Amino acid sequence: MLDLVKMAKRALLIALMALGASGLTWAQTSGAWPTQKPIRLIAVFPPGGSVDQVARILAPALQAELKQNVIVENVGGASGVIGTSAMTRSDPDGYTFAVVFDTHGVNPSLKDKLPYDTIKDIAPVILVGTSPMVLVASKKSGITSFKQLVDLSKTGKQFSYGSIGIGSLGHLAMARLAKQAGFDWNHIPYRGGGPLMQDVLGGQVELAVGSEFLVKPHIESGGVIPLVITTAKRSPALPNVPTISESGFPGFSAPAWWAVLAPGKTPPALVDAMNKALNKVLKTPAVAAKFKAQGIEIVGGSPETLRDFIGKQIAIWGKFVIENNIKETGQ
């Protein structure tokens, strides 16, 4: 009789454990998510750059929308690879996401081997937005206009410009411009937007290329001089700054972009839930105003929209990287 009681208790325990597991799955894939713990939002670049700023604009609004704590964690290095890798290794339970930059579309061609598969290990969530990149000059450089920079470069004078890293879209955009014009410019890679802007403000590097989001506060404070932007049209936030296309290089266009990703095995229901929450957040007046003030044009849309966008970016810039033999150790 005692054995029968033990067997009954064991059977009940197993049933309860199974019910708990199924209940967790139901909670994760139903409207109950998120309930278990805070959400990690990994910013794949160091503090001070545009990825960090985008994450910190999204986090409080997302926290209010989901009624759950959202914690921004900076995991920088290797042009976003280290932070993205940390995200892919996280449990696919809907509690870890990553905010990535345009380097995500370049890294598959630039790196000999990534620690993750860009298709299998990553689930696209949402394309947050796009923005012009801006080429700015240090006040100590003596450069006050793009025409002056071009004219001096044509005489053979070499200038140094910084970007957030080898293979970043800023680096590739300036490398394409220099090749097209026959300039001899020296690229200086940085680990993120914060260190880059510190050095251009201090005059340690003559030129810097970064997203409008990153450089606009320093333009407004008078710390740097804007020379030109990389998109086909002028930016409403910087209407007096000409485009590269209208400054002697027709058709030139290279926008910066930001996106949110999830671990590849995250259930589609959770990806969709986060996508819907972020779409709502991006439409709130406070968030929209903050992004607009920094020159970011909100995109939003479905995970499929982001998947297609990233595929096109990989194709466009991957071809440039391969054709020009751009390596991590140099231009």
List keywords for this structure.
11 helices; disordered N terminus; D-Maltodextrin-Binding Protein, domain 2; 331 residues; globular; 5-stranded mixed sheet; 6-stranded mixed sheet; alpha/beta; 11 strands; 2 domains; 18% strand
Description:
It is a single chain. This protein is of the alpha/beta class and 331 residues long. It has two domains: 34-131 and 255-323, Bordetella uptake gene, domain 1 (D-Maltodextrin-Binding Protein, domain 2); 133-247, D-Maltodextrin-Binding Protein, domain 2 (3-Layer(aba) Sandwich), CATH 3.40.190. Helix content is 44%, strand content 18%. The chain has eleven helices and eleven strands. It has helices at 2-29, 50-66, 81-88, 107-110, 146-154, 169-181, 193-202, 212-220, 268-283, 285-293, 303-323; strands at residues 39-43, 70-74, 96-100, 122-131, 133-138, 160-163, 186-189, 207-211, 224-229, 256-263, 297-298. A six-stranded mixed beta sheet has the order 2-1-3-10-4-11, sandwiched between helices. A five-stranded mixed beta sheet has the order 7-6-8-5-9, with helices on both faces. Strand 1 (39-43), helix 2 (50-66) and strand 2 form a beta-alpha-beta unit. Helix 2 (50-66) crosses helix 9. It starts with a helix and ends in an 8-residue tail after the last helix. The model is unreliable at 1-9 and 11-30 (pLDDT under 50).
